[in-house]
């Protein structure tokens, strides 16, 4: 099967998209920490709300979509050497490490959604979580990324 882009180019673009996505997931909770600690209606709050929204629209959303799109392309290319095989045979050939990585990526996607919901709450003036909570949450994507990258590179 001929592809519009090569596997190596897709892999490179996937890595770039993942770097952008994880960077945004690391930054967003920090913005939320600043919002939470700022004076309601003040200049810092407004500046951070705008920065958080721009980060979501310009970096987080597009990079997540691209990371998933290139990841799906890589997965399909990796596991399907012969499309004439039955789907159960194709899926049986998927390495175990991949399923663990997929669970981690689904978790990051859920975390991304959580950040969107919480950002909307902050924009409404609600502050249900502490500054400390947001500072701790900013570490989560990095820990998940470490595990996902090691699964993909070591293929245990």
What does this protein structure show overall?
- The protein has 156 residues and is mainly alpha-helical.
- The chain has one domain (7-154).
- The protein has helices at residues 7-37, 43-79, 87-92, 96-123, 131-137, 140-154.
- 22% of the residues are buried.
Distance N terminus to C terminus?
A: 28 Å
Q: Could you give the order of the helices and strands? A: HHHHHH
Number of domains: 1
- Categorize the overall geometry: elongated
Portion of residues within helices: over 70%
Low-confidence stretches: none
* Structural class designation: mainly alpha
Main beta sheet strand tally, sense and closure: none
The count of strands amounts to 0
What is the helix tally?
6
Report the sheet-strand fraction. under 5%
C-alpha-based Rg, rounded: 19 Å
Mean pLDDT over all positions? 90
Blueprint (SSEs and pairs):
Layout: H1 7-37, H2 43-79, H3 87-92, H4 96-123, H5 131-137, H6 140-154
Helix pairs in contact: 1-2, 1-4, 1-5, 2-4, 4-6
In summary, what is this structure?
The protein is mainly alpha-helical. Helices cover 79% and strands 0% of the residues. It has one domain (7-154).
Relevant terms:
156 residues; mainly alpha; 0% strand; elongated
């Amino acid at each position: 099967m001929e592809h519009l882009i090569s596997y190596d180019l897709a892999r490179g673009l996937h890595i770039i998209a993942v770097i952008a996505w994880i960077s945004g997931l690391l930054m967003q909770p920090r913005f939320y920490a600043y919002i939470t600690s700022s004076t309601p209606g003040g200049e810092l709050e407004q500046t951070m709300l705008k920065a958080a929204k721009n980060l979501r629209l310009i970096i987080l959303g597009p990079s997540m979509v691209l990371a998933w799109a290139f990841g799906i392309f890589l997965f399909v290319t990796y596991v399907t050497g012969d499309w004439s095989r039955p789907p159960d045979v194709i899926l049986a050939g998927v390495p175990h490490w991949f399923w663990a990585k997929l669970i981690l990526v689904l978790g990051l996607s859920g975390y991304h959604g959580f950040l969107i919901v919480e950002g909307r709450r902050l924009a409404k003036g609600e502050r249900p979580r502490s500054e400390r909570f947001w500072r701790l949450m900013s570490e989560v994507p990095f820990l998940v990324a470490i595990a996902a990258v090691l699964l993909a590179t070591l293929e245990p």
